[in-house]
What we know:
single chain; alpha+beta; Structural Genomics Hypothetical 15.5 Kd Protein In mrcA-pckA Intergenic Region, Chain A; Alpha-Beta Plaits; 9-stranded mixed β-sheet; elongated; disordered C terminus; binds uracil
Amino acid sequence: MERLQKVLAAAGVASRxxxxxIIAAGRVSVNGKVVTELGAKVDPTSDEIVADGxxxxxxxxxxxxxxxxxxxxxxxxxxxxxxxVMDYMHGIKERVYPVGRLDYDTEGLILMTNDGExxxxxxxxxxxxxxxxxxxxKGVPHGDALDKLRRGIRLDDGMTAxxxxxxxxxxxxxxxxxxxxxxxxxRNRQVRRMFEAIxxxxxxxxxxxxxxxxxxxxxxxxxRHLTKAEIAELRELAEKAGLKETHNxxxxx
Length: 253
Ligand code: URA
C-alpha cells in the first residue's frame, strides 16, 4: 500500500505537492469514492484511481544513461530558455529527470529516471559512488600537482577526499594533456575547482563513469536504457553505504 499522492506523482499527474492540492480539492476518487484525506493509502495495482475524471495509469520505471552535450543544461527546465536534457528525450513518454547534475559546459554521462526513490539514493550525500572524468588541460600539469589531487586538496568548502588521478595522454610539446580523475564526492563544480587549485586550465571536461555505469560508445546527445545488472549494482553500492530506498521524496516536491 502506498500513499495516494505518491502514486499520483509516480503516474506523472503532477509533482507530489501539486498532487496533494489536487487530492485536497476533491478531484481524486479511489474505487468510486472521492478521497480528500492526504494520508490515504492505496494499492496502485488493484485500486481504481481516478484524477479529474481520468483513470491513472502506473508509469513504468525507466532508467537511462544519457550523453549530455556541452552547452545543455542538466535540469528539467531552464528559465533562460536554454536547451535542457529534456530536449533529447525523444520517444520517452515517462516523466524522467536527471540524477544530480553536470555543469552547462561539462559533457558526458548523466543518468535519467522517473524513479524518485532510486534518484534520491544516488543523490544522497552519503552515497560516495566513484565518478570518473576525462579532463583536457591547457599545458601538462606536473606530477606533484596531481599528487595533491590524489591526497586531497583544500577548496573553499573544505578538503577533498582522496582521488584516483592519472595521465591518460600528454602531447610531446607539453601544450595539452588528458588527465583521468575519479572522485567519490559530488560537490558543486568539484573537478573544475580542483584543477583551479593546481592552476591548470581545463579546456574540456567529460564524465565517463558513474558507479557501475560507463559512457562507453554512447553518442553525444543520445541515451540508452540501463541494463538490469547496472541498476542492481547501483542499488548494491547504495546498500553498502548503508542507504535504503525509504525516503520516498519525488523530485518536484
Ligand atoms: N565537476 C565539475 O567541475 N563539473 C561537473 O559538471 C561535474 C564535476
